[in-house]
Every structure is written in C-alpha cells, then in structure tokens.
Design a protein that fits this description.
alpha+beta, Glutaredoxin, 4 helices, 4 strands, about 40% helix, globular, disulfide bond, redox-active center
Length: about 80
C-alpha cells in the first residue's frame, strides 16, 4: 500500500467524505488536521502547488487534489491501483 496523507479540517463535509472513501478502501492514511495544527497549513499549500482548500490528498508522491478528485479517480477505476502502488 502506498503512503496516503490527507490534510483536513474537523468541520469540513468534503474532508469527511474523502476520509470515508479512504476508510472504505481500507487505506491506511495519516490525517493532518490543520484546524488543530495551523502550522501545517503553509507546508500543505506548498505541497499542493498553491491549493489552499481542504481536503488536500497525497498518495505516495502524487498530489491527488481534493475530495472531487479522489472520487473521480475512484469512478474511473484508478484509485485502487494508486493505493496499491
């Protein structure tokens, strides 16, 4: 399994949807809650090429994007392969 990292905020419905999909895929992921750790916001924006919205999702070294991007990968049948590496 690839390393999965997701930057979220506790009150974000898109973050909840994205983490729910990752859990349904049995993906082991690290959740960085930037509302609880605001010092991670700057590094998140840098890693996400300037994107400042949450969630921001990374699978391995690939920046997936946000919730809609994650669901689009799943709908295209590409998410499982990405997670497996």
């Amino acid at each position: 399994m690839q390393k999965v990292e997701i930057y979220t905020k506790g009150y974000c419905p898109f973050c909840t949807r994205a983490t729910s999909l990752l859990k349904a895929k049995d993906a082991d992921f690290t959740n960085f809650e930037i509302d609880k750790q605001p010092e991670l916001r700057g590094p998140m924006i840098e890693r996400a090429n300037g994107q400042s919205t949450v969630p921001q999702i990374f699978i391995g070294d690939t920046h997936v994007g946000g919730c809609d991007d994650l669901f689009a990968l799943d709908a295209a049948g590409k998410l499982d392969a990405m997670l497996k590496g």
